[in-house]
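Subject: for your reference before the review

Hello V.,

The reviewers asked for a structural picture of the protein, and I figured it would be easier to keep everything in one thread rather than splitting it across files. Below is the amino acid sequence we used in the manuscript, unchanged from the supplementary table.
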Amino acid sequence: MPIYFQYIIIVSVLLIIALAIIKGSKKDFKIEANKLVEYLGGKDNILSMEVNLSRFKVTLKNVEIVNKDAIQKLGARGIVEIDNQLKIVLGNNAERLKKYIEELKKQDAIK
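And here is what came back from the structure prediction:
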């Protein structure tokens, strides 16, 4: 058996594993994002959002109903509360989360 055939098999297996990981991480993101929205008091409690690098700043109707402990357990590296705003350090997913929540709110507006 030629050596290049073995390399083709190895590369194919690695590609399949990589695709499985990518597909699984997309599903996990939606689950985590939905949990975060729930912990923020639901999408109706979210008035506005901003992203600055890894920080997710959210303005809320009622900050009292937010479950900050659950947000921390979800992976937030820090939370700062100022009046009716929360600044949450989320890492690389901050921008992705903002877009996801905007889509959730748009779907609600269409209904």
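For the response letter, the relevant points are probably these. Residues 3-110 form a domain with the Gyrase A; domain 2 fold (CATH 3.30.1360.60). The beta strands are 46-52, 55-60, 78-82, 85-89.

Happy to draft the paragraph if you're swamped.

O.
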